[in-house]
Design goal:
- By secondary structure, the chain is an alpha/beta fold.
- It folds into two domains: 5-16 and 89-204, 3-Layer(aba) Sandwich (Rossmann fold), CATH 3.40.50.1000; 19-84.
- 46% of the residues lie in helices and 10% in strands.
Length: 226
């Protein structure tokens, strides 16, 4: 069946973590890298589902680690976490989304995302308007790898799962998409994505990643760091 839709994860596909903001998070929280990764991700699912706001998320991490973050620290942690996921956009991948849209494919972002990042992106990223649909987990109370979030996104795009290509950096999310019926690829970098699509014969239908011109950035959008 022909591909009619391409669905993108956001974090570590359309953006990469900003190292400066990440270092600021470690400094404010007082964690080493290993401890930060453990506690950040253990509670992240509830945050992405919208069960916690940013203040409750960081207070929970503080309680679990014996830290009493001040209100000012919590505000800074929220700010740096937003910057971590919005400051370092992947320009070649954004260019490919534009090439797909220009070629007539419907496109979506399907991302596990808390409200604070959701709100910032919708306010600052004009290029989101070019996507046919945005599925951000906090708005629906469901998150990857729940099958319901994949079928919901396909329904919103008006395509069958078999007509959609899904791209995500996490294997568990790719496997869940495949079980629902989507064509799914695990993303590492744009060269690997191009090779994977070519090996599956999908470049006969799709524009080639990495050969597109980047979309013009709207006024007020953050620039991709050099």
């Amino acid at each position: 069946m022909s591909i009619r839709a391409v669905i993108f994860d956001y974090g570590e596909v359309l953006c990469q973590p900003d190292p400066a903001a990440h270092r600021a998070l470690l400094e404010i929280a007082g964690f080493d890298e290993a401890a930060f990764q453990q506690h950040y991700w253990s509670d992240r699912h509830d945050y992405d589902l919208g069960r916690l706001d940013g203040s409750a998320f960081w207070r929970r991490i503080g309680e679990e680690t014996g830290r009493a973050f001040t209100p000012a620290q919590i505000r800074s942690l929220i700010e740096q976490d937003v910057l971590q996921w919005t400051s370092f956009l992947d320009e070649p991948m954004l260019a490919w989304t534009a090439a797909l849209q220009d070629a007539g494919f419907v496109t979506a972002i399907l991302s596990n995302m808390p409200f604070e990042i959701d709100h910032y992106m919708r306010q600052e990223f004009g290029w989101l308007a070019h996507f046919t649909h945005l599925t951000f987990s906090c708005e629906h109370g469901i998150a990857k790898p729940d099958p319901a979030i994949y079928t919901y996104t396909c329904d919103q795009l008006g395509v069958l799962p078999e007509e959609a290509l899904f791209i995500d950096d996490k294997q568990v999310n790719v496997e869940a998409a495949e079980r629902v019926g989507l064509e799914a690829v695990r993303f590492r970098n744009i060269a690997q994505l191009r090779d994977e699509l070519e090996s599956r014969g999908l470049l006969q239908q799709l524009p080639t990643p990495g050969e597109s011109v980047a979309p013009e950035e709207s006024e007020g959008e953050p620039q991709v760091p050099a």
